[in-house]
UniProtKB/TrEMBL annotation:
<protein>
    <submittedName>
        <fullName>ZN273 protein</fullName>
    </submittedName>
</protein>
<feature type="domain" description="C2H2-type">
    <location>
        <begin position="114"/>
        <end position="141"/>
    </location>
</feature>
<keyword id="KW-0238">DNA-binding</keyword>
<dbReference type="InterPro" id="IPR013087">
    <property type="entry name" value="Znf_C2H2_type"/>
</dbReference>
<dbReference type="GO" id="GO:0005634">
    <property type="term" value="C:nucleus"/>
</dbReference>
<dbReference type="Pfam" id="PF13465">
    <property type="entry name" value="zf-H2C2_2"/>
</dbReference>
<feature type="domain" description="C2H2-type">
    <location>
        <begin position="4"/>
        <end position="31"/>
    </location>
</feature>
<dbReference type="InterPro" id="IPR036236">
    <property type="entry name" value="Znf_C2H2_sf"/>
</dbReference>
<keyword id="KW-0539">Nucleus</keyword>
<dbReference type="Pfam" id="PF00096">
    <property type="entry name" value="zf-C2H2"/>
</dbReference>
<keyword id="KW-0862">Zinc</keyword>
<keyword id="KW-0804">Transcription</keyword>
<dbReference type="GO" id="GO:0000981">
    <property type="term" value="F:DNA-binding transcription factor activity, RNA polymerase II-specific"/>
</dbReference>
<feature type="domain" description="C2H2-type">
    <location>
        <begin position="86"/>
        <end position="113"/>
    </location>
</feature>
<keyword id="KW-0479">Metal-binding</keyword>
<keyword id="KW-0677">Repeat</keyword>
<comment type="similarity">
    <text>Belongs to the krueppel C2H2-type zinc-finger protein family.</text>
</comment>
Amino acid sequence: EKPYKCGDCGKGFNWNSHLERHRRIHTGEKPYACPECGKSFSWSSHLDRHRRTHAAAGEPPCRCADCGRCPPPRATESSKTPEKPLECNECGKGFTKNAALAKHRRVHVGEKPYKCGECGKGFGLNAALLQHQRSHAAGKPYQCGDCGKSFAWSSHLDRHRRIHMGEKPYRCGDCGKSFSQSSHLERHQRVH
């Protein structure tokens, strides 16, 4: 039984960190941006694979215009085409729509225009804001029948229920001590 369940699709995971990474499929979050061209990825491994395409093409590892040691992108390196007539002035990436170009520019400036009305936290993508908003009280539909505590995600309720049930599925291979959450086991293992 995989204890960490995705509230959107029900897929289970052994580790909470794997669930959080998986959730990016649903939220559209792409926190890993290529410094060469600005393209963003949901997973660091995809960014690493993408960056190898720049290296294979013989591009320098940095193409910023203001670090003092890198040349600005040359016109021949531009991805602007008749099909993609709009060009990012930071990295040369081409786009078909102004809205897509504006969204892309957030990569360069770190802009987070989607603000949570509850706590003020900012997000680059509306989908990420919507996911975050479920963490506030009104967006916590999963309630524990034993103590009444509410959760935004069914997987978090499942994890919490282990407290009441005394379930401790995460066992230390070194000393045999068991834990209800994988993060507690990981913290414990750092002492060995």
